[in-house]
Amino acid sequence: MADSMLRRASARGLIAGLATTSLLLVACGDDDGGNNGRVPSMLTQAPASGEARSGGGAPEIDELFWSPRNPMPGRVIEAEALVSDPDGDRTDVAYRWLADDGRRLGEGPRFDTDGLEPGDTIELVAVASDGDLESEPYAVEILLGEQAAAIDLVAIDAPEDARPGARLEAVVETTDDSQPFEIVYEWRVGNQVVGEDDELDTTDIAPGLPIVLSARLAFEDHTTRPVRSTPLTLSGDGAPRIASAPPNTLEGGVFRYQLRVSGASPEAGVRYVVAEGPEGMTVDAQSGLVVWRPAADQRGRFDVEVQALDRFGSGAAQTFSIDVDDPAPPASAR
After folding, report:
1. Structural domain ending residue among the three candidates 76, 109, 143
2. What is the pLDDT of residues 136-171, one digit of tens each?
3. What is the pairing mode between strands 271-276 and 282-283?
4. Which of 123, 151, 238, 252 falls 20 to 30 Å from 230 in CA-CA distance?
5. Contacts with 36 (C-beta within 8 Å, 6 or more apart), sequence order
6. Residue 54: inside a domain
């Protein structure tokens, strides 16, 4: 009987030893935080790892881009990662922006550097995920450069009492001329762009219309926001006004009317037109002489509208009526 009890005790010891060994092996599998997979238990089947579930490897970031390549304080930096995935899975990228002391400054693909200083270093860290596995972090350092030149002043240099036909010059002052850039000019009258050079010919611009100059600095990788000048208006005597009055009668069966204007400068280039009138009425576009010889069948009242216009299309109109009576009957013979 003692021999039988000894054999049963030995068997229990062996089973307990096997169980202890199995527990130790399972514990060793969790020691590495999942980086090297798990060691399966001798008693039960271990669950499959993340790699086994997905059927492939984790995504990988091949390269990390940012724009502009040489950012300055106050600019927005945009990041984009080039990602490859062995399974062809759809991937998402998480971006973190860190200060040189490790502080988190922002997240997402866009980061505004407003408040930072030239010479500050930003660390951009990207991690790609396919929804199951993540890539190794990919990090780059971005150095903020010196502030680029900016526009201090935009103004229009014009002759005193500038009139249509005067030449205007652009005046643009910047904070720094040591950096390479181009100045982009734009002259506007209302919503219309009338010039894109550093000078403007105002021949076709009417007096009284505001002229605005805007300028931008074009660098290799970006263009600044436009800065606008104070509006300038050309002086002049205004639109022409008709100062003459039409005659009341015909002379020798002919209507003659010499139009005269006031308020127009010599450079206005006034022209005359008959906007409405009887058939056969004409006007000399340069001198303003209106002439009409009524035909035999043209009797009664006729409405007339004449216009005096400057070369900008501004001007005045005058309306009047002409009465043409039937000719008196001839005297009877005696």
Report:
1. 143
2. 999 999 999 876 678 889 999 999 888 888 999 999
3. unpaired
4. 238
5. none
6. no
Burial track 192-210 (b if 16+ CB lie within 10 A, e otherwise): eebbeeeebebeebbbebe
Write the burial class of residue 20 (CB in 10 Å: 0-12 exposed, 13-18 middle, 19+ buried).
Answer: exposed
**What local confidence, expressed as pLDDT, does residue 239 receive?**
75
Separation of alpha carbons 300 and 303, rounded Å? 10
pTM for this model (two decimals)? 0.45
What's 176's domain CATH number?
Answer: 2.60.40
Q: Give the domain-ending residue among 172, 203, 233.
A: 233
What is the structure's pLDDT at 180? 84
Burial class (CB in 10 A: 0-12, 13-18, 19+), 74: middle
Residue pointed to by tokens 């091949």: 62
Token reading at 188? 């506007």
Enumerate residue ranges in the chain where pLDDT < 50. 1-55, 331, 333-334
